[in-house]
Design goal:
alpha+beta, 2 domains, 18 strands, 16% strand
């Protein structure tokens, strides 16, 4: 038997993988016994920041990571595919349907027992092996005990979540539906060879986003209001470090008047049907539920006080009478310094039978968290079965992520999303970027299949 602490993406994925290998699992989740500042339900794998799992094509690293996880029977990917909502080339989900799918699958598995309790200390050898997958909102008591074990201060950064607006309150006469222009996406050939082929000439972008176009005058008024807005009080905010991939819009705005126009408000690839041209700036809204009754503001993480948020966001064309289902907010993320603590198997260097997974382990992003849980679950199960833990090659996205977390520079460590840059480079990379990405994906999937077929991950996801 193995124990897993934390019922988020990583914990649920780890439990699913271990159970698939025939190992009994006790999954400990502290909610609702101990609530957090940002969770709204007691469901497993509740998404609190965004409803997007990012790109879902093989021309980007996170799309490749998803495909690798699907091939290993990932519960998170299965549930996300079932809860999918329109989002162009990205995978976005109805967060309630997704959590319900995850909760139902995990709770009904005959080898998984879900216990609602708070674990305040790292368990001893009597719980062996154990995976800590408590996420970025690890309780204070357990955080303190983890800190004592690793012998160093936690690294931490502040994370912000985006507002959600009621669809019926959007002025549809001021917005237009479109996705950015089609990308040069390579896809599996479909002939069973595993080869990738270039996109068909008929590929067209899907119109899955609502776009709020701004003129230069509208943008200037919005920008001036944004940088003058009063932020919510966050302890130690003056010295806070924000993750670069999830910066609050006001933090970005203070870097320069046009920073937002090259970030979440970039207008390129979106032609306003009213003018036939790119807008000066644009705010995109992404469907947040299957019913299409909620939309989230893409890239609009914020720490502004709620009253100020309502006033400023209603300056956006189409949102003049917006009703907000949820305002943006800030929460603190904590994580261990992976290179000092972890091996590429997600085991700790101090204890063979203690593993970490998810954001607390030093990865960033929903998919990356689930991916770490997938491998930690497999390796924890292998310990129970008397087998050696396995490491995937760096040519795979899964293996590259594990290698980064355990081998990056510990003195300047920051959690990362999966990128092609942390994967083992091609020996003779072609100059064409699209072809280079295609070859990286082709090699990764071949090496993953080889690892599975040779027994390194045999039985995973069964």
């Amino acid at each position: 038997m193995m124990h897993i602490i934390g019922g988020g993406l990583a914990g649920c994925e780890a439990a699913w993988q271990a159970a698939a290998l025939g190992v009994d699992v006790v999954l400990h989740e502290m909610r609702p016994v101990r609530p957090t500042a940002v969770h709204q339900t007691d469901g497993l794998a509740e998404l609190v920041c965004s409803n997007s799992f990012r790109g879902d094509k093989l021309d980007n690293a996170v799309g490749l990571l998803k495909e690798e996880m699907r091939r290993l029977g990932s519960l998170v990917m299965r549930s996300a595919d079932r809860a999918r909502v329109p989002a162009g080339a990205a995978l976005a989900v109805d967060r309630h349907v997704f959590s319900d799918e995850m909760t139902r699958a995990v709770s009904s598995h005959p080898r998984i027992t879900v216990v609602r309790d708070e674990i305040t200390q790292i368990p001893g050898p009597e719980w062996s092996p154990v995976i800590i997958a408590t996420g970025p909102l690890t309780s204070d008591a357990l955080s303190a005990d983890i800190q004592r074990m690793v012998g160093a201060e936690h690294l931490s950064f502040y994370d912000a979540i985006s507002p959600i607006v009621l669809a019926e309150s959007i002025d549809m006469t001021r917005v237009f539906r479109a996705s950015r222009w089609a990308r040069n996406v390579w896809r599996p050939s479909g002939d069973g060879s595993g080869a990738l082929v270039p996109p068909a000439p008929t590929d067209v972008p899907e119109g899955d986003y609502l776009n709020c176009p701004m003129t230069r005058d509208e943008y200037d008024v919005f920008y001036d209001a944004l940088i003058a807005a009063e932020s919510a009080t966050v302890h130690d905010l003056d010295t806070a470090t924000f993750f670069e991939g999830c910066l609050p819009i006001e933090v970005m705005a203070h870097r320069g008047r046009h920073t937002l126009r090259f970030g979440p408000m970039k207008p390129v690839g979106l032609t306003d049907p009213t003018t036939g041209r790119f807008p000066y700036a644009v705010v995109q809204l992404r469907q947040d539920t299957l019913a299409g009754d909620h939309f989230s503001l893409v890239g609009f993480q914020t720490q502004i006080k709620w009253g100020e948020q309502a006033r400023i966001l209603r300056m956006i064309p189409g949102l003049g009478q917006a009703e907000f289902v949820r305002f943006g907010m800030v929460h603190r993320n904590t994580y261990i310094c992976g290179p000092r603590v972890l091996r590429p198997t997600w085991q700790t260097r101090l204890r063979d039978d203690l593993l970490f997974a998810g954001q607390v382990s030093g990865v960033e992003g929903y998919v990356e968290s689930a991916a770490s849980g997938l491998l930690a679950g497999i390796n924890g199960a292998r310990l129970v079965l008397g087998l050696a833990p396995q490491v995937l090659p760096r040519t795979t996205a899964l293996g590259a992520l594990a290698h980064y977390v355990s081998h990056a520079d510990p003195d300047h460590y920051q959690p990362t999303n999966i990128t092609h840059g942390i994967m083992e480079p091609l020996p003779q990379p072609p100059r064409d970027k699209a072809r280079r990405k295609a070859l990286l994906a082709e090699r990764a999937l071949a090496d993953l299949d080889a690892s599975t077929h040779t027994g390194a991950l045999a039985g995973a996801g069964a």
